[in-house]
Amino acid sequence: INTVAGLPTVMAxxxxxxxxxxxxxxxxxxxxxxxxxxxxxxxxxxRYLARPDSRSMALIGNGSQAEFQALAFAGxxxxxxxxxxxxxxxxxxxxxxxxxxWGLHITCCASTAExxxxxxxxxxxxxxxxxxxxxxxGMVAPGMHINAVGGDCPxxxxxxxEVLRRSxxxxxxxxxxxxxxxxxxxxxxxxVTEFWRVLSGQA
Length: 203
Prior knowledge:
The chain is 32% helix and 22% strand. By secondary structure, it is of the alpha/beta class. The protein has a 5-stranded parallel beta sheet. It is globular and about 55 Å long.
Protein backbone atom coordinates (compact mmCIF):
# COMPACT_ATOMS: atom_id res chain seq x y z
CA ILE A 1 0.00 0.00 0.00
CA ASN A 2 2.78 2.45 0.93
CA THR A 3 4.66 2.21 -2.36
CA VAL A 4 1.43 2.78 -4.34
CA ALA A 5 0.92 5.95 -2.30
CA GLY A 6 4.51 7.08 -2.85
CA LEU A 7 5.44 6.46 0.78
CA PRO A 8 8.41 4.55 2.23
CA THR A 9 7.80 0.96 3.35
CA VAL A 10 9.61 1.66 6.63
CA MET A 11 8.86 4.69 8.81
CA ALA A 12 9.82 5.22 12.43
CA UNK A 13 9.59 7.82 15.14
CA UNK A 14 10.43 7.89 18.81
CA UNK A 15 9.13 9.66 21.86
CA UNK A 16 10.93 10.30 25.13
CA UNK A 17 8.65 10.75 28.11
CA UNK A 18 9.18 11.29 31.80
CA UNK A 19 8.85 7.98 33.64
CA UNK A 20 7.54 9.76 36.71
CA UNK A 21 4.79 11.79 35.01
CA UNK A 22 4.36 10.44 31.48
CA UNK A 23 4.93 13.93 30.10
CA UNK A 24 6.34 13.83 26.53
CA UNK A 25 9.71 15.58 26.47
CA UNK A 26 11.13 14.80 23.05
CA UNK A 27 9.79 13.57 19.70
CA UNK A 28 12.11 12.44 16.91
CA UNK A 29 11.90 11.09 13.37
CA UNK A 30 13.83 7.79 13.48
CA UNK A 31 13.55 6.35 9.95
CA UNK A 32 17.17 7.26 9.16
CA UNK A 33 18.29 6.02 12.58
CA UNK A 34 16.54 2.71 11.92
CA UNK A 35 18.34 2.34 8.59
CA UNK A 36 21.72 3.06 10.21
CA UNK A 37 21.08 0.73 13.15
CA UNK A 38 19.94 -2.10 10.91
CA UNK A 39 22.98 -1.86 8.64
CA UNK A 40 25.37 -1.50 11.58
CA UNK A 41 23.91 -4.59 13.26
CA UNK A 42 24.23 -6.59 10.02
CA UNK A 43 27.88 -5.59 9.64
CA UNK A 44 28.66 -6.34 13.29
CA UNK A 45 27.17 -9.83 13.05
CA UNK A 46 29.00 -10.54 9.78
CA ARG A 47 32.29 -9.44 11.32
CA TYR A 48 31.95 -12.33 13.78
CA LEU A 49 30.15 -14.94 11.67
CA ALA A 50 31.16 -14.48 8.02
CA ARG A 51 34.44 -15.75 6.59
CA PRO A 52 37.14 -13.09 7.14
CA ASP A 53 38.11 -13.19 3.45
CA SER A 54 34.56 -12.38 2.26
CA ARG A 55 34.68 -9.84 -0.58
CA SER A 56 31.40 -10.33 -2.48
CA MET A 57 27.83 -9.80 -1.34
CA ALA A 58 24.48 -10.46 -2.99
CA LEU A 59 21.78 -7.94 -2.13
CA ILE A 60 18.29 -9.32 -2.69
CA GLY A 61 15.87 -6.43 -2.44
CA ASN A 62 17.31 -3.13 -3.66
CA GLY A 63 15.25 -0.54 -1.81
CA SER A 64 16.55 2.11 0.57
CA GLN A 65 17.92 -0.31 3.19
CA ALA A 66 20.07 -2.03 0.53
CA GLU A 67 22.11 1.15 0.12
CA PHE A 68 22.85 1.31 3.85
CA GLN A 69 23.74 -2.39 3.89
CA ALA A 70 26.09 -2.01 0.91
CA LEU A 71 27.93 0.94 2.42
CA ALA A 72 28.22 -0.69 5.85
CA PHE A 73 29.65 -3.91 4.43
CA ALA A 74 32.00 -2.06 2.09
CA GLY A 75 33.25 0.32 4.77
CA UNK A 76 33.48 -2.09 7.69
CA UNK A 77 34.12 -5.51 6.15
CA UNK A 78 35.89 -4.77 2.87
CA UNK A 79 33.15 -5.97 0.52
CA UNK A 80 34.15 -4.85 -2.97
CA UNK A 81 31.75 -6.78 -5.21
CA UNK A 82 27.97 -6.44 -5.13
CA UNK A 83 25.53 -8.69 -6.97
CA UNK A 84 22.10 -7.05 -7.07
CA UNK A 85 18.60 -8.36 -7.70
CA UNK A 86 15.14 -6.88 -7.17
CA UNK A 87 11.82 -7.69 -8.81
CA UNK A 88 11.68 -3.95 -9.63
CA UNK A 89 14.44 -3.01 -12.10
CA UNK A 90 13.96 0.66 -11.24
CA UNK A 91 14.94 -0.02 -7.63
CA UNK A 92 18.14 -1.70 -8.82
CA UNK A 93 18.92 1.17 -11.21
CA UNK A 94 18.48 3.70 -8.40
CA UNK A 95 20.73 1.68 -6.08
CA UNK A 96 23.43 1.43 -8.76
CA UNK A 97 23.31 5.20 -9.31
CA UNK A 98 23.52 5.93 -5.58
CA UNK A 99 26.47 3.56 -5.08
CA UNK A 100 28.39 4.70 -8.18
CA UNK A 101 30.66 7.18 -6.31
CA TRP A 102 31.93 4.47 -3.96
CA GLY A 103 33.96 2.54 -6.54
CA LEU A 104 32.34 -0.83 -5.96
CA HIS A 105 32.18 -3.53 -8.62
CA ILE A 106 28.44 -3.97 -9.22
CA THR A 107 26.69 -6.70 -11.19
CA CYS A 108 22.95 -6.45 -11.86
CA CYS A 109 21.38 -9.90 -11.98
CA ALA A 110 18.21 -11.31 -13.51
CA SER A 111 17.27 -13.57 -10.58
CA THR A 112 18.02 -14.37 -6.97
CA ALA A 113 19.81 -17.54 -8.04
CA GLU A 114 22.10 -15.58 -10.36
CA UNK A 115 22.81 -12.96 -7.68
CA UNK A 116 23.79 -15.43 -4.95
CA UNK A 117 25.96 -17.63 -7.19
CA UNK A 118 29.51 -17.26 -5.87
CA UNK A 119 28.60 -14.67 -3.22
CA UNK A 120 30.37 -14.89 0.15
CA UNK A 121 27.54 -13.05 1.92
CA UNK A 122 23.85 -12.91 0.99
CA UNK A 123 21.72 -10.14 2.42
CA UNK A 124 17.94 -10.28 1.96
CA UNK A 125 16.10 -7.00 2.50
CA UNK A 126 12.77 -7.47 0.75
CA UNK A 127 9.63 -5.49 1.54
CA UNK A 128 6.74 -7.75 0.50
CA UNK A 129 4.66 -8.51 3.59
CA UNK A 130 4.18 -12.17 2.72
CA UNK A 131 5.35 -15.63 3.66
CA UNK A 132 7.84 -16.01 0.82
CA UNK A 133 10.82 -18.07 -0.18
CA UNK A 134 13.42 -15.64 -1.48
CA UNK A 135 16.30 -18.06 -0.90
CA UNK A 136 15.99 -21.85 -1.14
CA UNK A 137 18.46 -24.50 -0.01
CA GLY A 138 19.68 -25.19 -3.53
CA MET A 139 21.07 -21.65 -3.73
CA VAL A 140 23.16 -21.94 -0.56
CA ALA A 141 26.84 -22.87 -0.75
CA PRO A 142 29.01 -24.12 2.15
CA GLY A 143 30.50 -21.24 4.11
CA MET A 144 28.03 -18.67 2.81
CA HIS A 145 26.88 -16.12 5.41
CA ILE A 146 23.18 -15.29 5.11
CA ASN A 147 22.00 -12.01 6.57
CA ALA A 148 18.18 -12.25 6.55
CA VAL A 149 16.89 -8.78 7.38
CA GLY A 150 13.54 -8.58 5.61
CA GLY A 151 11.56 -11.28 7.47
CA ASP A 152 10.48 -8.69 10.01
CA CYS A 153 6.81 -9.12 10.86
CA PRO A 154 4.29 -11.89 11.58
CA UNK A 155 3.46 -13.82 8.43
CA UNK A 156 6.56 -12.64 6.55
CA UNK A 157 9.59 -14.80 5.77
CA UNK A 158 12.38 -14.88 3.17
CA UNK A 159 14.23 -18.18 3.68
CA UNK A 160 13.08 -21.71 2.95
CA UNK A 161 12.83 -23.79 6.11
CA GLU A 162 15.49 -26.15 4.74
CA VAL A 163 17.99 -23.28 4.68
CA LEU A 164 17.50 -22.90 8.43
CA ARG A 165 17.72 -26.65 9.05
CA ARG A 166 21.07 -26.80 7.23
CA SER A 167 22.55 -23.77 9.01
CA UNK A 168 23.81 -22.54 12.34
CA UNK A 169 21.18 -19.90 13.11
CA UNK A 170 21.91 -16.76 15.13
CA UNK A 171 19.26 -14.23 16.16
CA UNK A 172 19.16 -10.95 18.04
CA UNK A 173 16.34 -11.82 20.45
CA UNK A 174 14.80 -15.27 20.22
CA UNK A 175 11.24 -14.62 21.51
CA UNK A 176 10.70 -11.81 18.99
CA UNK A 177 12.29 -13.80 16.15
CA UNK A 178 9.89 -16.70 16.71
CA UNK A 179 6.95 -14.30 16.26
CA UNK A 180 8.29 -11.91 13.60
CA UNK A 181 11.30 -13.56 11.97
CA UNK A 182 12.32 -16.63 10.00
CA UNK A 183 11.67 -18.90 13.01
CA UNK A 184 7.91 -18.54 12.48
CA UNK A 185 8.12 -21.53 10.16
CA UNK A 186 10.19 -23.73 12.51
CA UNK A 187 9.10 -25.91 15.46
CA UNK A 188 9.28 -24.33 18.89
CA UNK A 189 12.27 -26.49 19.88
CA UNK A 190 14.38 -25.55 16.84
CA UNK A 191 17.76 -24.54 18.30
CA VAL A 192 19.18 -21.06 17.72
CA THR A 193 21.86 -18.94 19.37
CA GLU A 194 21.25 -15.38 20.51
CA PHE A 195 24.07 -13.27 19.10
CA TRP A 196 24.99 -11.62 22.43
CA ARG A 197 26.36 -15.03 23.49
CA VAL A 198 28.89 -14.82 20.65
CA LEU A 199 29.93 -11.32 21.70
CA SER A 200 30.37 -12.46 25.31
CA GLY A 201 32.39 -15.52 24.31
CA GLN A 202 29.73 -18.00 25.49
CA ALA A 203 29.15 -19.36 21.96
